[in-house]
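User: Can you help me understand a structure? I only have the sequence.
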Amino acid sequence: MERRDSLDGTMASTTNRHDAESLLGTEFEVFLNFRGPDIRLNFADCLYHSMDGAGIRVFRDDEEIRKGEAIGGILENAIKSSKICMPIFSRNYASSPWCLRELACMVDCLRKRDGKVMILPVFFDVNPDDVKLKTGLYHDALHKHEQKFGCHVVQQWKEALREIVDDRLLMHNLLRDLGREIVRQENLQVPEKRSRLWCPKVALDIVQTRKANRDLKVIHLMRCYLLTTPDFSTCLNLKILVLDEHCPKSLQIGSSIGKLEHLKHLEIIAAQVQPSRLLAGHHFDLFAVPSAICGLKYLSSLKLEGQCMRELNPSIGEMAGLTCLSLKGCNQLRILPESIGKLKSLLQLNLLYTRIKELPVSIEDLKRLEEMNLGFTQIRELPNSIGGLKSLLSLNLQHTKITELPASIGYLKRLECLFMAGSKIKELPKVIGMLENLRVLESRNCKNLDGEIPSEIGRVSTLEVLDVSGSKVSRVPTTINQLSYLRELRFGDCHKLERLPELPASLKVLCFGAGTVLGTPGQTSSKWMGKSAKLEDWNITWPPQLWALSIYCDDPRSLTGLPTSLSLLELRDVQSPIKQPFFFQFEIFETFVQVNTLQMLVERDRVLSTRESPSFECG
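Assistant: Let's start by predicting it. Here is the structure, written out as tokens:
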């Protein structure tokens, strides 16, 4: 059986079956489980080699080397003997039946208390809701597995996925401690000889007493409440400097930072502190964003968050290697210099919670920019030049005062995510149909968004999520059924919605939130709900793969023809009693039932809990 260098760090890249089986009695400290093509060459390798280099015995399993369909003695023993099992969830994790088999084995060991197994999940480009199957990310893969392995086996995998997510905080802490232990082992007795310093007291003492060694690469200072940055002139090889959650908004940047020629990442994040923690009479204004920082020619990531700056020094345009610029929370910042357009390498620009009122025309010169966050700014309109951002993948306009999108937005051919929740946007333009790679369109709680979703949206064949919850949208075009990849469609609290056309068969999540009238077209007030609401009048053909449905419905008996694929059902404002047989018409895992203000969580035939507030926002 082919193996890699994944058992104890001393094996060759392959070993024969006899050698592998001789390890049946070996105990491991960490068992890594992941889907190889997703993360093997980056995160998984880095994690493995870091632990292995620190003397931690790691079993690194990769589903690509597996040929059989059952977990044999070697793997089962490795899981049982490991102190920590670490499944790394990636976007395509569920497409691997082998990963799912191992996961089920881990959970089974945990349930039986067989050995001392602790499961610490890692989320790589996914979130816990994805893994808990509350989104559609893993649903298609699991559906395909049912055809090959049967519903019973796949149901076990689903339960394992849902159960595995509860231990996130502990996982984070243990991974942090694991990394710190690796660094501590570099020199147990003399901290200043280590390559990284994260303990605030130790790090600050070493820097201030000028004891730092020339090999020091990383300093992380947290909650030190400084008025000025320390003297870093003895740390000239520093690559990462983080001043996190401790610096007052009036922190003065010392000139010694400008001497850190090798610095790649600089992060200065302010925290809210009591005035008594600061010395009276000292208040510095960083309105010029010190030229010392702008002189760091090799800096690739700059985060100045929560600082009292009113403008950026124009010399920031000279930082040619900058790929990430975050000014989040700098609520005195009102203007960007035209020189911002000189940052030709910039990939991420975060202006969240600033008071920027307009973007400079030179913004179009950021040809490599992939993410731009303008959320909660004072911006009222986007310049036509925004169409020049040919590489833009994500644009966040949440809670801005923008009322309309420029026609040039149609030139953003690579745009995948457009977030406009809570903005003043009045309509979705027809050029939305030109966004040929758009996956997510979110206009939730846009109170001014009125009328019809443009029929051109049917051209956006890549669209997966459409959310207009809390808007005044009244009509949905028939072209929506052309969206063959659409997974989520949300109309929560859309009081004016009149009717739904035929929905795409790909739909997994459908939401009609409180206030949506599922009755005679034209009724717009929730008071018409109740006896007059007739779901059958809508003639809805439920998508066959629908797995989550949130609906405002007084009588669940009107919910006929629901697909058996439903896993999550939310019923709001229920007036009629629900009998047990209702739940057995489909394989529902959880049901949320709202009777007036009382919320009940039901799992098939039993009530799990009751609560006064809604379990989740359907919008």
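Now, to help you interpret it: The two ends are 51 Å apart (CA to CA). Residues 17-175 form a domain with the Rossmann fold fold (CATH 3.40.50.10140). Let me know which part you'd like to focus on.
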